[in-house]
Write a structure and sequence with these properties.
Helix content is 71%, strand content 0%. The two termini are 18 Å apart. It has one domain. The radius of gyration is 17 Å and the shape is globular. The longest helix has 25 residues. It has 179 residues and is mainly alpha-helical. The chain has seven helices and no strands.
Amino acid sequence: MVEQSGIYILARRLIFAAVCLSIIFWRLLPLDTLPRGWAGPDLIVALTFAWVLRRPEYAPPLLIAALVLLADLMFQRPPGLWAALVLIGSEALKARAAGLRDMGFAPEWLSVAIALVAMTLAERTVLAILLVPQAPLGLSLMQMAMTVLVYPLVVAASALFARVRRVRPGDVAAVAGRA
């Protein structure tokens, strides 16, 4: 089977990295000269969670940490804080992935929403304790809500374009990727 190949898994990891780098590049483009009054979704987090819950071997922790750290540096966020929270959130969701597979999409979406709420609260708490200037609470909550709302679209796009689907019970690639 093609999915058991190490080259296939490496190709999927490269696709994941390329999509994340494209998102970073797109957000850095000076398309608007005025600051926006709204916050868009964090597509890198939504993509990471979608791939980790479907095929964790395609998005290894080191790659996730490196890409989100790069995004932290490029977007001038406190370096490493959001990367650490995304890594913790993705690993927590990965631990629950087997149980979520049998339940359908709604519990998965709820788990992602809970993880995003916890990550946002943790980030704001750490920044408040360290007295680091923060974005207004409304913008942070808006970004979190937009990320939760766009998650189903990211899952659908991942399945349609990158063929990242849930692991089936007889799938050997997922077992080989975790070993």
